[in-house]
Design brief:
Helices cover 45% and strands 16% of the residues. Helix 5 runs antiparallel to helix 7 and helix 5 packs parallel to helix 9. By secondary structure, it is of the alpha/beta class.
Length: 328
Amino acid sequence: MPKFSIILPVRNGGMYVKDCVKSILNQTHCDFNLIVLDNCSEDGTLEWINSLNDHRIITYPSDKPLGIEGNWARVTAIPKNEFITLIGHDDILDPEYLAVMDKLIFQYPDASLYQAHFRYIDQDGKTIRHCKLMNEKQNPTEVLSGFLTGKTDIMGTGFMMRSKDYDAVGGIPAYPKLLFADFELWINLARIHYLAVATEETFAFRIHQSTTTSAADSVMLDAFDRFIEYLVKLKSENPDYKKVITENTNALLNFHCQGLTSRVLRTGMKKRNGQTVKGIIDKFSIYAERLAPGSRYDPIDNKVVRMALFIDANFIARNLFLLFKKIY
């Protein structure tokens, strides 16, 4: 029985899935299988994968079209090897990825989560930038702090874990469109023991122009709202987590409030589902009180948020802004 399972949930992977699968099959460490969770692809993805006729590939076609949440939820229901990693259909593993992970597991056998350094690539596969440097061994509070402050780049691809641990925490939680779901999943797994990180760069995460704009603003806010609920729960369970969350609330909220107000501002009124910049600001003030009661966090201390509020409240300024964004 192989040691590793690489799990690829996919729907209509197009040309990207071919590069992804080829990068998986080209691993120098051969003790693995590739599990494909096909979600009723209509572009020939499953047919192409089956045509490879590779004994290492196991496919699980869905009986009916599922949302992304439903397809990824199938990971807990399928047979898996001792260690698993999840990969997006447009990401790429370097040939040494599994070899590096195998060495890392040998070096830190009691870790509950493993990761390596990586790079961001564009739609053409060109490197945009390398991820931020990570400490080789991180306890749960360090992992939590890095995620909340943005000092750690976090993505869904590249993490390695034991199948039994993944199943025990319930798999990836069903956040809307899985936005922020990986935050909760990786924290839950790191909490079991700790995170071990390889110094080598071993994979590429692809960034598309639509990555941050395809989800509706209301979906993003609903997902972030669920993440706040998770942090509130963490605070109640452990005083160390409470301290980390309280200390880093301002950094977390400042970053995401700026991002969400900017998203809403560049969305036409008819597509907002009632969202306004002021509404988001009000909500973030409530988040601050829940995470760090009595904190001095004020969303409009951020000049980008303050400008977004001014523009959104003025009909002429808002439409001029949208026109400018459309042209440029």
